[in-house]
């Protein structure tokens, strides 16, 4: 059972984006999380440096679809960083602060909707559900 069902429910019904001035911060979807993981975002990895460049790249990812970020990453990490920095050059300090607050709120919503820590099946004593649509395979 979820320890805070109200927070989890609020997270689940929150709109897909949050308006932050002239920007929209996207909720943390699987695609967005994959991008943030790939760029080493401090939002999803607390061991990553919390530099302004890292936050600029993170906020850039949160303000556009994951597919757009993948296209920006396709030529390489430096190309993505350059695109993110060009975008960041248009963002004021006040806007950046508000965007970072919205990013933190999105992470808190994600955590509220997924409060249970994953434990290996051995600890629970039961086999975990089969993650494939087809079910278990022979062999």
List key phrases describing it.
about 140 residues, mainly alpha, about 55% helix, 7 helices
Would you write up a description of this structure?
This protein has 139 residues and is mainly alpha-helical. The protein has one domain. It is 54% helix and 6% strand. It has 7 helices and 2 strands. The protein has helices spanning 5-13, 30-39, 52-62, 66-73, 77-88, 93-113, 121-124, and strands at 17-20, 23-26. A two-stranded antiparallel ribbon has the order 1-2. A hairpin with a 2-residue loop joins β1 and β2 (23-26). α1 crosses α6, α2 (30-39) packs antiparallel against α3 (52-62) and α3 (52-62) packs across α5.
Sketch the major β-sheet. Answer: 2 strands, antiparallel
- Percentage of residues in DSSP E strands: 5-15%
Radius of gyration in whole Å, from Cα?
18 Å
What is the helix/strand order? HEEHHHHHH
Determine the structural class based on helices, strands and strand pairing.
mainly alpha
Shape: globular
Distance between the termini: 35 Å
Low-confidence stretches: none
Number of strands: 2
Fraction of helical residues? 40-55%
How many domains? The number is 1
If strands are numbered along the chain, what order do they take across the biggest sheet?
A: 1-2
Q: What is the helix tally?
A: 7
């Amino acid at each position: 059972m979820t320890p805070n069902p109200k927070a989890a429910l609020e997270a689940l019904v929150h709109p897909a984006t949050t308006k932050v001035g002239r920007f929209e911060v996207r909720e943390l979807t699987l695609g967005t999380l994959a991008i943030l993981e790939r760029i080493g975002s401090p939002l999803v990895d607390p061991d990553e440096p919390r530099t302004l460049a890292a936050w600029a790249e993170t906020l850039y990812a949160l303000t556009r679809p994951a597919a757009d970020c993948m296209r920006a990453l396709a030529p390489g990490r430096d190309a993505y960083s350059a695109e993110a920095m060009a975008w960041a050059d248009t963002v004021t300090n006040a806007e950046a602060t508000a965007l970072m607050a919205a990013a933190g709120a999105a992470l808190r919503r994600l955590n509220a909707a997924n409060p249970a820590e994953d434990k290996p099946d051995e600890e629970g004593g039961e086999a975990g559900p089969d993650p494939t649509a087809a079910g278990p395979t022979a062999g």
